[in-house]
């Protein structure tokens, strides 16, 4: 625990790592198509199991953060699911958590893949996914679990947490992925995490008894039989379902000893957490790969050119890294759609700043940041979204981030086109100046770019490249 720093350098609210990551886990729930609080409920379930097993303190702490962060790699396969199955990745993930292997999984795919496409397209899609189901499953799980483990390491978690996330989809009988581990080869934390996940999904959808029966049905196949007995005893406790759905559960999870017992949450650590989550955000779609990091860079350049204090500039850079966190809740059928979006699809896109606000505002230290990121698509003339703010309602911080966001949308490389030349981008932004973007912030960006020595590649080239986000998708994506 430590005291955070506000954007103006004054002391902010006390920070607890469990609370910070618990709030960010709501973004992971969105991209997994799960009801709000899924990871937090899994953490609560896991802690009950840890108590029943009398696990040592360090293992309980590792389990706690494994459960909160188990889905950090989930965005890395979203675009690939959309491409392979031609269906909503959120619906796919939400439903697939309720099916069991090929016996139920393949009928689900046959019913759902490429629904609404032409008969020939649907036939080709089904032939491909059925003929390559093993390779596809291995690819999707390897990307998801590998990326999740990598991000856990970036966030300073122990190797035990990283390995637990990497083995989340292994099964007791050796039929899981990506390594085909079996029995005690699978880390105990992974075994508990997978069972906690299934417990939450089935309890919410079908009730506690159905969840207990599901545990028993998968004993010896997916799940450790000894752990099944522990879980079913817990699930069949008369108060289990009530406690799982209690509005006080989140506070219980955030205030437990494991949430408070970890590395100090200082400014450096907050930067690392923000950077790690920017990788989760940008892995969602190849069309916005690296976007958060570049917007953070341009935001910092504008802040420095305007003479903002170092602590304010650092705070704004962190906010820029997280500005698109709400996009994790948008299906890749929309994010990766070639051509123009429909009005209904645009309505969904326009919700992502609000979804981002809902995630970040859950932590007191992030609430001011949430108020800035929710406005990164607003315009001085009031024609932006989501609220149509204008004039003095738009703070300087909001205007800075909006300019940085527009600039990257125009100048970044895309899979279907090269980066727009600086002169062409300036022509477009010149027309927007005063109505679509703030002229002073725009001028500051131009001055900073001149001082930096453009071309754009010199500013973009040091962005970390996320190879797992580079998936083959159709060209022609419309920028949101």
Automatic annotation (TrEMBL):
SUPFAM superfamilies: HD-domain/PDEase-like
Domain HD-GYP residue range list: 266-461
GO molecular function: phosphoric diester hydrolase activity
Protein name, as recorded: Metal-dependent phosphohydrolase
Species of origin: Phaeobacter gallaeciensis
Pfam families hit by this protein: HD_5
Keywords annotated in UniProt: Hydrolase
PANTHER family tied to this protein: CYCLIC DI-GMP PHOSPHODIESTERASE TM_0186-RELATED, CYCLIC DI-GMP PHOSPHODIESTERASE VC_1348-RELATED
Classification via InterPro entries: Cyclic_di-GMP/3'3'-cGAMP_PDE, HD/PDEase_dom, HD_GYP_dom, HDIG_dom
Domain of life: Bacteria
């Amino acid at each position: 625990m430590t005291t955070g720093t506000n954007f103006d350098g004054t002391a902010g609210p006390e920070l607890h790592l469990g609370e910070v990551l618990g709030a960010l886990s709501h973004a992971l729930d969105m991209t997994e198509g799960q009801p709000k609080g899924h990871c937090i409920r899994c953490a609560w379930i896991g802690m009950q199991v840890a108590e029943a097993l009398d696990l040592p303190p360090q293992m309980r702490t590792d389990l706690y953060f494994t459960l909160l962060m188990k889905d950090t790699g989930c965005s890395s396969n979203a675009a690939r699911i959309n491409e392979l199955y031609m269906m909503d990745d959120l619906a796919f993930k939400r439903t697939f958590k309720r099916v069991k292997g090929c016996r139920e999984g393949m009928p689900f795919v046959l019913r759902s893949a490429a629904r609404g496409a032409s008969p020939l397209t649907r036939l080709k899609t089904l032939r491909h996914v059925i003929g390559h189901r093993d390779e596809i499953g291995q690819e999707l799980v390897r990307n998801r679990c590998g990326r999740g483990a990598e991000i856990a390491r970036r966030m300073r978690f122990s190797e035990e947490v990283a390995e637990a996330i990497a083995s989340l989809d292994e099964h007791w009988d050796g039929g899981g992925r990506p390594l085909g581990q079996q029995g005690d080869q699978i880390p105990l934390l992974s075994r508990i995490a997978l069972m906690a996940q299934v417990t939450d999904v089935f309890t919410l959808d079908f009730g506690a008894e159905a969840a207990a029966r599901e545990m028993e049905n998968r004993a010896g196949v997916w799940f450790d039989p000894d752990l099944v007995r522990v879980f079913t005893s817990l699930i069949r406790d008369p108060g289990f379902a009530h406690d799982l759905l209690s509005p006080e559960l989140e506070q219980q999870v955030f205030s437990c000893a494991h949430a408070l017992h970890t590395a100090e949450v200082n400014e450096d650590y907050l930067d690392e957490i923000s950077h790690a989550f920017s990788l989760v955000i940008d892995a969602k779609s190849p069309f916005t790969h690296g976007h958060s990091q570049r917007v953070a860079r341009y935001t910092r350049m504008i802040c420095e050119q305007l003479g903002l204090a170092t602590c304010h500039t650092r705070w704004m850079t962190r906010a820029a890294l997280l500005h698109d966190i709400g996009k994790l809740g948008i299906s890749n059928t929309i994010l990766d759609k070639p051509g123009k979006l429909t009005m209904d699809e645009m309505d969904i896109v326009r919700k992502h700043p609000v979804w981002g606000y809902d995630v970040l505002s859950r932590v007191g230290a992030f609430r001011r940041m949430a108020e800035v990121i929710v406005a990164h698509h607003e315009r001085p003339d009031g024609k932006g979204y989501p609220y149509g703010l204008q004039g003095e309602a738009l703070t300087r911080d909001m205007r800075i981030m909006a300019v940085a966001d527009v600039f990257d949308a125009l100048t970044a490389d895309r899979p279907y086109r090269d980066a727009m030349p600086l002169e062409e981008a300036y022509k477009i932004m010149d027309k927007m100046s005063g109505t679509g973007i703030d002229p002073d912030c725009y001028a500051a960006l131009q001055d900073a770019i001149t001082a930096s020595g453009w071309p754009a590649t010199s500013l973009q080239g040091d962005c970390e490249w996320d190879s797992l986000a580079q998936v083959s998708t159709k060209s022609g994506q419309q920028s949101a």
